[in-house]
């Protein structure tokens, strides 16, 4: 009897990473037929950017969606296991000092909502770009940003059980005066075109400046015993490294496509460097004043992460025709001043913020003098020593009037001239018969480039004085009306709990009751 070997189906050759990535990106796209591509994607040409070959857009990680879900799922398991252990072991009592919690209040209301804004922004940018590779990259980054917002809210919600000021971050982000600074940055980017949005967020913010945001917060959390925040920071940072690489590759892609793109990108780099730098004023203040145990000074961080790393980046981009951002030298001159100027603002207006403020202790002022030998003792120590003496006499004072704001960055006009730290910097422009005020040449330049956009800025001080920041149904004409109390109610800030001087705050009183520690006699915590 004879047998005949069964015919074998030839094995399908396994695709390489490059081919598989191409199939899962370019292979999913098509040219439209009954509608023109320009009608389907109307926004990726109006900025003037010229793209000749969308297939040159490359994801250096060549990440496909199935691999993406696998990696992210593994990170989620580890993250939530650590958060659960932190909660079960009352990790909130292992922090160095309850003043540290105020950095989380700043982060939760000022940074976490930006992650959600970035999620929406990348979803819109992806819809606007006709290149399939770009759309897939934007989709994954959009999901990343949503995940970051969720993990941050979830992690920090544990502290809301014990400390004030963490109860309504989304509401506060849209209303509280100082939170208009980060909010306006992202709304400015999201109301631009898709290429400008990607340059603003993926390049200027993610690549050039993100280390100045994430490093201080996450290293500060580690130094001060907050391992839950460290964990979500590490979980997000692995995504951030991908975002940073994409940001640089995106800019290079645009620059390589057409020489006419170079001046457009340079203008965006100038604009978004300055806008991002002004936003980081809040981080500078946090690093130098709000961390009980400090990692490094803002000046040191600026030198390391911008002057050295950023300088090397722009040397590399010089071959594309891109120079260092305009006014970078002003930022370097201000590195020894902006944190002190910002803390002075909040020391005046802490009663209208969702976190506490305080005069730095003598050991902290010694640290500041060591880090800022040219400015602190001569310019800022006398002010803080006077404020400390006033507080001892029961004369702790908060400013109940409202400051002039910069029309562009929306920070109170308290910055000083680049070459004179004793003189307030003031600039102005006129547009359609109205005067607008700016804290710097950089902010004035941004306004002058697009005045029709920035005249629409929602400035908190203007809105408060116009009566637009009171709860619905408020009657400001009644006898004894307290406008500040009404504004704080509108902000959802609990008067007497969330705001004001740390030394008289419920957070301090509760901490001492829970731990049996007298903070007035505690050992210095400065690292």
From TrEMBL:
Source superkingdom: Bacteria
Record-annotated YHS domain positions: 416-458
Enzyme Commission code(s) on record: 1.14.13.-
Assigned keywords, A-Z: Monooxygenase, Oxidoreductase
Oxidoreductase among keywords: yes
Organism from which the protein derives: Variovorax boronicumulans
InterPro entries in UniProt: Ferritin-like_SF, Phenol_Hydrox, RNR-like, YHS_dom
CDD domains per record: AAMH_A (cd01057)
GO molecular function: monooxygenase activity
Protein name in UniProt: Phenol hydroxylase P3 protein
